[in-house]
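Lab notebook: predicted structure, single chain.

Context: the supervisor wants predicted structures on file for every construct in the current expression panel, including those that have not yet been purified. This is the next one on the list. No modifications to the sequence; it matches the entry in the shared construct table.
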Amino acid sequence: MNIEEITQQITDMVINYAPKFALAIITLIIGMWVIKRLMNWVEPTINKSTKDETLSQFLASILSALLKVMLLLSVASMFGIDATSFIAVFGALMVGIGMALNGSIGHVASGVMLMIFKPFKVGDLVKIGGGQTTGTIESINAFNTVLATLDNKRIIIANSNVTGNDITNISGQGTVGVELTFSIAYNADIDKAKSVIKSVGDTCPYILDNPEQGVVVANLGSSSVDIATRPFCKSEHYWDTMFYMKEEVKKQFDLNQINIPFPNMEIHMMNQGFN
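Prediction complete. Output recorded below exactly as produced.
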């Protein structure tokens, strides 16, 4: 076979497949655009029908993946690939990939479990893994759960890691008690300190009247008297309440001359005579 024949074959292939390739690329681009627009409409519709933002996001992520697979099948058929054969090959490939990536399948299964048992929903403030990760749930997808932290970081956790850890839903009941402990020196007036903490709680705009805030002596430490309080607030005001109470109690302690203990060391020196 000479150069002219090879060149002619290449030219024929380009003439035959170039239009198909161009059409496939155009179809793929338009298809992705249509799927994106469709999902922008579908997700709010699902959310409206289910009235569950968490479930609607999860179903939308599954539907988006299925539509993209169907689009790939359509593009493959433009090259003359039989859809049935393609599906068979694709299915066998997925089985192989599934065996290699059984952890990913586990993430999907964990996502389904999160949808069924609903330990939290979008917007809830949660602690995962004994408090190692704390944030607000942004979305629950097919493979992972997305959290937004207080300092606006985005944390993506595999679903199986979520279900495999302890989950504390701070927002679960709608209201939450903010655990706070303030330490004072042993020579400080306990009743005065308790009154200051209670009065600060009364001025906090986030603390609820019911249940009433209690202030008690929680512990007699080695160098301090620990006074505890647990004011209740709406879940979304958890951090606001905590920061407000810590700052204002410290200011009022200073104004009322209530000492906060700090580490100290007492040294005794003895004079000894030397001969």
